[in-house]
Amino acid sequence: MIGWASPPYYDSNRKVLHWAKELKFGESEINTLNYNLRVLGRKGIFLINAIADMKALPQVKQNVDKVLSSVSFNSGSKYEDFDPKMDNVAAYTVGGLVAGKVLAKAGFFVFLAKFWKLIAVALAASGGYILNFFKSKKKNQEIETSEEPQISNDDKSDQEINS
User: Which of 22, 83, 128, 161 has its CB surrounded by the most CB atoms within 10 Å?
Assistant: First the structure.
């Protein structure tokens, strides 16, 4: 991430969170625009992303209102339909919406922290099983190849006669 192409701001009239990031991928000379909109509803959000090169930022900003006018929640699911007596307040904040991916990854690490011992034991057991499997297979191959065929006295006399 190079930086903010448009810093996060909240449109309290329309209940929409906006932000745009300027990104650089590899050796590309042209940076990428990732414009994000989060339209808040009663029980969730509607996600809209515009991906383009940075030259398109003015055009994207110019058309945000047109895009937002095409989005609507069903009756009863709009932000205005929130009923504090019935509905739960969302556990995320505006900052949490912007950092959503980071928080999701943090949840993964919390899971790992809680269950790391169980995961470590399972990995060790699996690794031990696989190691034993290949060791026993190798040992069987060594036994098969190290045994020389036994020649009986009768076979030796036949070989001497034929030579």
Answer: 22
Question: Do 55 and 26 sit in the same domain of this protein?
Answer: yes
Residue type, 2: I
Q: Mind listing the pLDDT tens digit for each residue in 69-121?
A: 999 899 988 888 877 777 776 655 556 555 555 445 555 556 556 666 666 77
Q: Are residues 20 and 80 in the same domain?
A: yes
Q: Name the strand (E) or helix (H) holding 18.
A: strand 16-23
Asked if residue 162 is part of any domain, the answer here is no
H-helix segments, the chain? 57-69, 94-98, 100-146, 153-162
C-beta atoms surrounding 20 within 10 Å: 21
Side-by-side strand order, sheet with 32-40: 3-11, 16-23, 32-40, 45-53
- Is the domain of 77 the same as that of 108? no
Number of C-beta neighbours around residue 80 at 10 A = 8
Whole domain around residue 33: which residue ranges? 3-88
Q: Which pLDDT score is estimated for 36?
A: 94
Q: Is-contact 33 6, C-beta < 8 A? A: no
| Domain count for the chain | 2
Q: How many CA atoms lie within 13 A of 34 on its CB side?
A: 11
CB 18 within 8 A of CB 33: no
